[in-house]
Amino acid sequence: MKELLDTLAAWQAEGIGIGRAVVVRTFGSAPRPEGAVLLRADDGRIAGSVSGGCVEGAAAEEIERARKTGHARVVRYGISDEEAWDVGLACGGTIDVLIQPLVPAEAVAAAMTSIERDGHGAVVAIPLPSDSPPPAFGAHPPGEGAPPAPPIMISDGGDASETLGSDELDQALLKASEDALLRGISRTIELGGASLFLEAFPVRPRLVIVGAVEVARSLVRLAGELGYETVVVDGRAAFITPDRFPTADRLVVGWPDEVADEIGLGPNDAVAVLSHDVKFDEPAITEALRRGCRYVGAVGSRKTQSDRHERLRAAGVGADDLARLRGPVGLDLGGRAPAETALAVMAEIVATRYGGSGAPMRTRAAAATRVTDEATRIAGG
């Protein structure tokens, strides 16, 4: 939806009516993910895509129909649906597409806010018509739909514009919305006997790197590949140049605690302190912890970390904040080359973001197998 905001605004400025189609569920190797959007203007123009091209015409016709009836409905296109073969979805996937006669104002507002650096992520929970296809895979003829129900806007602060009328359902919705924002993935959930499409508009995750060292160069590249916005901060102008960091989103010359306001340092940021300089890295650590950054890591040996903790405690940093400091920074991957160190740092940042253990997957699988075997033994005996 974000990439269509300019087109949407231009069409609205012309005073033309617009409907949309949005992918709300996928099965198999679907060509576009949940949240992919197609817009259709009343004059026949289209923008965006819900299938990479193979069902756009059919979806556009459904939008035109919805504009006339005022009803929203969900249409399933897939390998088991003859209509899907007629329009060319032969990629082995199945998609459920929500057809809406109007573009929800809540989705537009959430998309615009999430783009702003100081903005907030938001989820728009859209109730699906009761005759929508079920969550199970299989052919399902489209129903007649119903007038669109009011969406529920949920900010990343846990605030909801409306409630579902039950504390238990409200808490389940908030939890599912928080997970959708964290992972940046839209999806449909079943809640209280109804289907809700959670359209996620997350703020892009950001990595602030303190210290324009060699490891930082590799770290910028890795973070960019993983979808992070990257900011490199260093007080030495000669080190922090576009030639050394061609893919960084922003280069800032200055002391990290002094530029924190300038870059809007906050809870959505991960901070990796790589400077190896007490007078430079410790103010950065203190400021990142004070502002509640989601990840704060710093290089240094165990002895360096012990001495650093003593100085930070003396400077007034509390025990809870010190417990959040990751140092030595990164997971133990065994490598020592700059790129290998950067990989270890990025691996820990990702694990922290999603609550991962950092343990080998085979270790987790073996543990799950032992639990299952023990449960089977107890049940049988």
Descriptive report:
With 381 residues, the chain is an alpha/beta fold. It is 37% helix and 21% strand. It contains twelve helices and 15 strands. The strands form three sheets. It has a six-stranded parallel beta sheet, with helices on both faces. The chain has a five-stranded antiparallel beta sheet with strand order 3-2-1-5-4. The protein has a four-stranded antiparallel beta sheet with strand order 7-6-9-8.
Offer a few descriptive terms:
alpha/beta, 5-stranded antiparallel β-sheet, 6-stranded parallel β-sheet, single chain, 381 residues, 12 helices
Q: How would you sum up this structure in a few lines?
A:
This protein has helices at 5-13, 56-69, 82-87, 105-115, 167-183, 214-225, 260-263, 278-290, 302-314, 319-324, 338-354, 361-380, and strands at 18-27, 37-41, 46-48, 73-77, 94-100, 122-127, 152-155, 187-191, 194-201, 206-210, 229-234, 250-253, 269-273, 295-298, 325-326. The chain is an alpha/beta fold.
Secondary structure layout plus pairing:
Elements: H1 5-13, E1 18-27, E2 37-41, E3 46-48, H2 56-69, E4 73-77, H3 82-87, E5 94-100, H4 105-115, E6 122-127, E7 152-155, H5 167-183, E8 187-191, E9 194-201, E10 206-210, H6 214-225, E11 229-234, E12 250-253, H7 260-263, E13 269-273, H8 278-290, E14 295-298, H9 302-314, H10 319-324, E15 325-326, H11 338-354, H12 361-380
Parallel strand pairs: 10-11, 10-13, 11-12, 13-14, 14-15
Antiparallel strand pairs: 1-2, 1-5, 2-3, 4-5, 6-7, 6-9, 8-9
Helix pairs in contact: 6-11
